[in-house]
Amino acid sequence: MASNFKILGWKSEGLRCPDHNISFTRGDSSVYEISLIQMPNGTGKTTVLNLLRAALSGSAYSETWNASKVRGLKKRNSDHNVGSFEVKLSLNDRPVTIIMQFDFDSGKVIYKTTRGEGQKTGFDPPSEFKRFLNENFVNFFVFDGELAQNLLDSNHTKAEKIVDDLFQISTLLILNNKIDEYWQKVTQDRTAKEWKGFKRRASKLTNLKARLENLEKEQRNLNQRLEEETERLVAKENIYKEEIKKGKNLNERHIKAETDVKEKEAALTDQSKIVLDNMADCYSLSDLFSTALYNFKVSLDRVKLPESAAREFFEELAEEDVCVCDRPIDENIRKVILEKSIQYLGSDDVSLLNAVKTAITEALGDSRTEPEKQLKAMIESLSEASNNLLDAKNELDEIKIEIAKENPDAKKAQDEIEAKKITIRDLETQLERFKSDDTSLNDENTYGIEVLRKRVEEAEEKLAEIANTMILRYKRDRLQKIITNAYQIAHDNITNEICSEANDHINDLMPYNDLSIDRIDSCLVLKGQTGGSTGEQLSIAYAFLSTLFNRSEHKLPFVVDSPANPIDLEVRPKIGAIIPKLSEQFIAFTISSERSGFVDAIVQQSKMPIQFLTLFRKGRTKLEDKITDTSLFNETDDGFCILGKDYFDDFQLDYEE
Amino acid sequence: MPFRLSNDGEKWFKDISKSSKNGFQTDFDAYYFCFIAGITCGQKKTLPVSETRELVEYFPDRFRTRGKLIVSLFLCRELIELGVQFNEKKAVHSAITKLIKPESPSYLSDEGMREFNKYANGGYEVLTEWFADRPRSLDTFLRLFKAKLDQELNKESNSWALGIAV
């Protein structure tokens, strides 16, 4: 979007230059295309120019503006400890005012910016103008001879950046930065962003999958073997039963012993459940526990916990105007009631505590030792049941030994059964490993199938994440390469064209000086030499700037100090002809001796009205006496500002004494 | 806030857990024995949530009607830990309001539940000291648990004997 930037005027008070208030607007609210401000040297031209630069760039917040520099701007012999410099601008036809408020006591400057949404403290121009309103750029349109020299010095200027900003190709570099920012944001939580990370994760996943596959295969094989061995065990047990049946007497005893074992096992299980259920009564576990519970209940009774009244009673009472005793409740009493109410339990707490006390009473009955006695008796029964089972098992084992002695085939089957049982136990133990949920070991030593499956899932997710990252990284690199190429091509083309056109202007201005711009780097690099005379440098600068500003769609003001002073008299008319074309608003500070050749050329070239202003310090009676038309001058405490060409032309003073 | 059983405790009870033949009826049985061992020795342990498993927020099954008594025993243990006599009204009042929440299904406040779980975590460590190996059958575990509990409570240094005087 094209930018339209105009300076509507400025006002200075309490600073080293004479107080003044200049407006560049015409009656129809547009600005003069050319404004010439005549100020004798020593009136504070440099001060005004520096203030203008600071107001337009916010540079007074930089380190170079220290307290001593700020205090140095105070008006001489003034009692006022404050000053201000105010610039009124039109930015894309919207008014913006920037004020610098000077506090000479503290040596500080505060900016105030007024635009659409009101006044804000600080330097706050509209964002679309920020690329012009910075120290580097402002120096190109608030210009002086020193800056013309700097334009040819790589230590001072950033000519390339001006070209980039003015033609907005720096947006491409900003775009590259934004791509980097996006990349950082998207990948900030990702632990791996490189190819080696991708390979590492891919390798981990492959190894994990291989291990899981091996273990699952092993598990399947073991399960199959377990199934087969169990079938074989059943077959052997059937053979054994058949063999037992051959000895009638022993068979009957065996059946009886087996039944007995089963009955005793059932009895033990039942008794275990009874004991388990009884042990759930915590007071049965020990008389110390039941005594503690009993004492707890008794103590609560003694200290009257819970109280007969609950906290809510007092909270409700505090809301009343009259107490239950008919005495009035004022604010103090209300406060005390509420404070004390915290000492009482809530009604829910009261109910629970009462229920607890009832539960203790019901559980313990009359004796605190009886519950444990009963539990001990049950545990005795449990021990008895356990012993009974042991006896029954021993009896069964003895019968088996007898059967084995009597029947070798039964013994063989019995031995095989025992061997199968050992094999099955061994297989079960091996299979148990696969159920492990231990996550503390590395992949190679982990056997838990579920643990490994989870790790495979995680590894797959991580690999997918880095794969996405790599794709994004490839896209980033491609896009940045395209943008960088586009920037370089645009930059080279524009700077080459500007060089070529500027050289045409230089040739026009100084056909016999053999000067031309070779290229635009950080500064303007001249062909075959490093500089020229002051006048030559200024001419080169104007030629460059006129090309630059004319080619750009952005309309910026151009403010110059002594535009023609160092330039040879024969070149001045040519410069005078160029300058009005530099911008749609040209403001120049001149001195009377500079008028010759230069001002005449400007007047001749310009088709629009020119604004003439003459600014000087009070106290020069001869000059003041010459002011005839009082409607054309502004008087401040220490200065005069006279409008009009007649006074401008008649003014003859180069230096303030 | 739920009761939480330590992962190690759960593994330790594996052979007599609810999934085994003739074992516990619920996982809370295992938690209960851990808790009792913890309050017997006054042993608390804080564990990261990741090292525990959430059980239930209430007293389940056989413990449903016994919840109030278990919570009372927990309160007694906490008062003993604080060196508070049961008849010190202010301290008892303070402990009750801090650890109890009547509307909670466990009757315990969040802080109460945290402390309760710490006893269960500490209790698992007590069990591993009491038992040479993890239990393989319920009847043996129950008998040995009672024997070890008595042994512990009969120690002169055990604070249950010292701290329950009225």
Overall outline of chain B: globular
Mind describing the biggest β-sheet of chain A?
7 strands, mixed
N-to-C CA distance of chain B: 33 Å
Biggest interface, chains and residues, is: A-B, 49 and 49 residues
Task: Give the SSE map.
The complex is a heterodimer of chains A (657) and B (166).
Chain A: E1 5-13, E2 20-23, E3 34-38, H1 45-57, H2 67-71, E4 82-91, E5 94-103, E6 108-115, E7 118-121, H3 135-141, E8 142-143, H4 145-150, H5 159-166, H6 170-187, H7 195-246, H8 248-279, H9 282-285, H10 287-302, H11 311-317, H12 331-341, H13 347-364, H14 370-406, H15 408-432, H16 449-509, E9 517-520, E10 524-526, H17 534-551, E11 557-561, H18 572-582, E12 585-590, H19 595-605, E13 610-617, H20 621-625, E14 633-635, E15 639-643, H21 645-650
Parallel strand pairs in A: 3-12, 3-13, 8-11, 11-12
Antiparallel strand pairs in A: 1-2, 1-4, 4-5, 5-6, 6-7, 9-10, 13-15, 14-15
Helix pairs in contact in A: 1-3, 6-16, 7-15, 7-16, 8-14, 10-13, 11-12, 14-15, 16-17, 17-18, 18-19
Chain B: E1 4-6, H1 7-12, H2 27-41, E2 52-54, H3 67-82, H4 89-99, H5 110-130, H6 138-153, H7 159-163
Describe what this molecule looks like in 3D:
The complex is a heterodimer of chains A (657) and B (166). Chain A has 21 helices and 15 strands. Chain A has 657 residues and is of the alpha/beta class. In chain A, the strands form 3 sheets. Chain A has a 7-stranded mixed sheet with strand order 8-11-12-3-13-15-14, sandwiched between helices. The model of chain A has no long low-confidence stretch (mean pLDDT 85). Chain B has 166 residues and is mainly alpha-helical. Chain B has one domain. Chain B has helices at 7-12, 27-41, 67-82, 89-99, 110-130, 138-153, 159-163, and strands at 4-6, 52-54. Chain B has a two-stranded antiparallel ribbon with strand order 1-2. In chain B, helix 2 packs across helix 5 and helix 2 (27-41) packs parallel to helix 6 (138-153). Chain B is globular. The model of chain B has no long low-confidence stretch (mean pLDDT 89). The chains are: A alpha/beta (657), B mainly alpha (166). The interface between A and B is large, with 49 and 49 residues.
